Amino acid sequence: xREEPDPAVLYPDVAAHGSLAAALQAAAADQGLSLTMIxxxxxxxxxxTMPSVLPHRExxxxxxxxxxxxxxVSGSAxxxxxxxxxxxxxxxxxxxxxxxxxxxxxxxxxxxxxxxVLTGRFEVPDGNPADVIAAEWQYxxxxxxxxxxxxxxxxxxxxxxxxxxxxxxxxxxxxxLSFSATPYPFTPSFATLVASxxxxxxxxxxxxxxxxxQVTTPAETISIAVDRIPEGLGQGPPHQDR
Length: 242
Description:
Layout: H1 7-10, H2 12-17, H3 20-30, E1 38-39, E2 47-50, E3 60-64, E4 71-77, E5 80-87, H4 94-102, H5 106-112, H6 129-145, H7 150-161, H8 163-166, E6 169-173, E7 176-180, E8 192-195, E9 201-204, E10 211-215, H9 218-227
Antiparallel strand pairs: 1-2, 2-3, 3-4, 4-5, 6-7, 7-8, 8-9, 9-10
Helix pairs in contact: 4-5, 6-7, 7-9
């Protein structure tokens, strides 16, 4: 088993400040910014948080990697993870942290970060279910685009292109796509779609259930899924991309 390096050895500059919170505050001060980070007592060198003035946003997390000198910044809200990105440069983080804390828009936070931080989801402060569903589709599409899996991307894009599926909440587990009429709690599954490398597609009734059909194109997969939508499930206009 690979031995985990001592955090103080991997991050001596952070250890010299006493905590990641203090190191980030010092980096911010170097840029003329003021941060009030919260140190994590259980792991002072590798973890720190920052609350936001916006009530629908959770505290932002900054975490250091255990085996490689790199930091991960992540921020969630009432509809899931909104920002997530990694950088080897601690000095690139203060403006992202401050933007999240002071209620800057996701677009403004992205402009302040010279590395990709947006997950695809947009903010839904009021928790409106239709907007939460639309935001989740954007997250699912971006995740598929970054997957390096053409068949999976083709499946997600085909599902999104179908209005009857686009009005439903998409959720994935082990790269299998399912649908629900509401974000939470999920309604019973009527179809779980699976892409295989090489071009085969499988339709199951639920995750880990038996195969109902195996086809060779995303279009056939989507057609079967649409035919299985229970009457009255997810009624309403299809969601549009923002």
